[in-house]
What we know:
3 domains, 19 helices, about 55% helix, two-stranded antiparallel ribbon, about 400 residues
Amino acid sequence: MKKLVRHRAFLKSFSVLALSLSLVACGKGSWFANEDDEQLKQEQIKKLIPNRVSQRDSWAKDIYDISNELKIPTNKENICTIIAVVDQESNFVANPVVPGLGDKAVKEVTTRLNEKFEDKLGTTIGGTVASYFENVLKNQPSPDDNYLKQMSRVRTEKDLDVLYREIFDYMAKHYHVSALTGAAKFVGQDIAEKMNPITTLGSMQVHINYAKEHKRTSMNINELRDDLYTEFGGLYYGIHRLMMYPADYDKPIYRFADYNSGMYSSRNAAFQKMIDKLTEADLALDGDLLSYDKNGDPRPAITDTEKALTALFSKNNILVTPRQLRSDLKDEKQQDFEKTQTYIAVSKLYKNKTGKDPMYAIMPEVVISGPKLSRDYNTNWYASRVNGRYETCMHRAKRLKI
């Protein structure tokens, strides 16, 4: 499970046809002898799911149904990609128990309460609301079994999520901010969703913002959160996030890295590496070419990558204006970034200066941190672990002659 150190932007929608063609190119077509036999397809997917998983039939059916709905080719490469991520994130448990979650949650709210509220709501309103929140935690719904005590007993992410929603619902019904000049509306899900610290949910740990962008049916935010904790819902949004974007990676480990650190992070890190080779910028190879706010929108500040590109283009008389450069970099979370003047210019310059083919992907250097983790990890650790599961799945397919 993961919680990224920084927020990342999300991919815009694109042609399903283009996606299908791209994914087919990564595999070898359908690996089923009988294209019309859905039961056989589900049975073969089941055989690729680890034997220790309970209700393998149900998981296999959902993976098949979702892949079919999203028009993702059911070749063994794609199926093993999905299985590897689900297994890494939750061991195929829709709402897994997180060891020590209650104690970690209590520690977070007792040590960083003011910081978190002020960060989200501003110093004036944030401090006031944080004080009230603390009072509610200690005294409601009753002093003997207050929310803080209930929080210490939570075992799953859904338990904690639902408890936070209950707390904020209580606050919305009893707390009034009319006396605060310029205060934002403090009602129900407005404040609850803004302050809810549970942002990655379900068996594939999908960010709630991504799920909101790609809702499979019309539902409110609480219904969407509940849906993510179901077997089908967790898989649907996770498979969508993992597979629904084309990339010319020659190894699946880069898609696994992207799942952890953001779409096209592996490609963008390679782009940064090429800039490094052409300059002495010593860039952080994190796959973020711009910096982003908490809503995933680019900040106006000029990043080190942007500065290095400006200097590189100036030195080599490449006519890319600062305005065009910024416009190109805003496409960094899309495949079309590869068609921009900036990407093409750097690739050609790298080829001319080094005599080597342009790099397409490397492992991004991103730290994974959060209250659900016992210690910090990095993207390489995550991607390598998932890749090991992928290789196991592919060996199983070979052994079973699927």
